[in-house]
Amino acid sequence: MSRMSQPWVSHLLLTVLLLLCRYASAVKLHKPRSEVLSLLGEQEGRLYFGNCEQSSGRSSCVFAIDESYNQEPTQCAVTSLEGKPWWMGVLETPAYITKITLLNIDQLYRSHPDALRAVTIMAGDDVCFRYESDESFVKRSFPCDTVADQIVIRSRMDSAALTLCDVTVYGAPIRFRGVVDDAGPLRVQWCQQSSVSGNGYCENAFDGDANSNHNARPCAVTIDEATPWMSARLEIPSLVTEIKIFNRADCCGDGLNQFLLTLDNRVCADYEVQRSSRKALGCYKDNHKDRDLGQLVSSILMSHEKCYSICKRLGLKYFGVQGGAHCWGGSTYGKHGKVDEKKCSIPCEDNERQRCGGSIFNNIFEVL
């Protein structure tokens, strides 16, 4: 599990926090691509990232996976000028990876040596491609043939800035049919935590007792300290598909408002309670040929909070969610008119309790 940036108080809260996590080490394949795809029962297509990080942060790593394809420096993932900079992204699910395409910054904006002139592209622990050239490229695709859930772009240059405006991965997801359907609770062999408050030992978090009252049945509790953490080891190596965390309900529930959850050093979740400021404006009609909101900013696992966060970062006054998955932003809205709220009834992909528009209708909000 992980180090955490807020006090860990395991067991329960009134609401169950559900975190999904899947992990697979890289597996090199030695079969024709068509045969592998046939075995998986999938067609080759685009794969999507769940999260990312990079060696340093002049710009956030998420600019490389936001599907904006904008090559201006402010819209790309950019590291500092440093030795051997890197970028890493974790896919939503383990996959058979066939190709990785990189979009570089527009050369008109380059002010530092280009780290992509000497770069190693990895999927899991396998090297897909080693690239080296005296010239920078704008867009280039690199072949791959492996099963993994993590992509690493690592420069071999001693002093350069890594700039990635888009990282697109192609292949086929591995669904783990049958295995996932039969999934059940996994047993923990041992655990430890950064400190213990009273009788709040880590074993209390894995005893199967979901009592929310610490005084009635002890939970795992650390002392009040900086960056408290808890870790645990499973009895046997396993495919982990879901992690449930139950918080305390008798007090201290905000101790899990922000934390990082990792599995074998892979980030499963970087959780933080979202406090967004937005005003719902209603359901509005859109037009494929004349968009109500002019900028498509994301089409990955959408929610109101995610669309709000991206559009606020981009300085957009209004945002709209559409078709359950798409986030649009703009400075004006309403050119095609307001419609009944029933037209905007598709659940959001990342939060089914929210509504993310209709097939050609936007739930529109104002960024306050």
UniProtKB/TrEMBL annotation:
Origin: domain of life: Eukaryota
Gene Ontology cellular component terms for the protein in this record: plasma membrane
Subcellular localization(s) per the UniProt record: Membrane
Keyword Transcription regulation found: no
Membrane-protein topology: Single-pass membrane protein
Keyword terms: Glycoprotein, Membrane, Signal, Transmembrane, Transmembrane helix
UniProt-listed Gene3D superfamilies: Galactose-binding domain-like
InterPro entries: Galactose-bd-like_sf, Kremen_rcpt, WSC_carb-bd
Keyword flag Heme: no
Record domain WSC: where: 277-368
Signal peptide: 1-26
PANTHER family, A to Z: KREMEN PROTEIN (PTHR24269), PROTEIN SLG1 (PTHR24269:SF16)
The name this protein goes by in its record: WSC domain-containing protein
Organism: Macrostomum lignano
